[in-house]
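Exercise 4. Each item below gives a protein and its sequence. For each, produce the structure-token representation.

Item: N-acetyltransferase domain-containing protein (Frondihabitans cladoniiphilus).
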Amino acid sequence: MHERTLIRPLHSDQDAAAFDRLNRRWITEYFTLTPADEEILGRPRESIIARGGEVLIATAADGAVVGVVAVMATGPGSYELAKMTVDETARGRGLGGQLIQAAITWARENGGDLVFLGTNTKLSAAIRLYEAAGFQRTSIAELGLEDYYARADTLMKLELATLPPSSAH
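Answer:
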């Protein structure tokens, strides 16, 4: 990256507002906000962090929030990577890959064995980033889920036990 970026946990109301704003932008561009989206975006501390997950915030040198990702606890050793986006002004500099790696590292450090995600083929750039990080396509049955976002036509997983420790940094 050309400018220095810091990735850290959510810790202020301004961070929560940026998480909401950045995600609303891409979701409404491609899809329709669901009640589940509204809950997660409007109450990240209660819907993600209090349930054993984390929201990671990427900030530029000037302190502006330029990217976000949620790591949601879904069961023992299982985390969902969700609500990842990079502001349009910061795209093309490797920040999406950095956010993915930070989420993988966080999941591993918090006892994760598996990270999975749902995405859509409309988001081809995101799918390329996930594949570059080692995620492989999977199915709802293989993940043991009963239901998932209707807009997710592509499910992916990364088994952390198969990664060497240096891959998660």
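Check: The longest strand covers residues 65-75.
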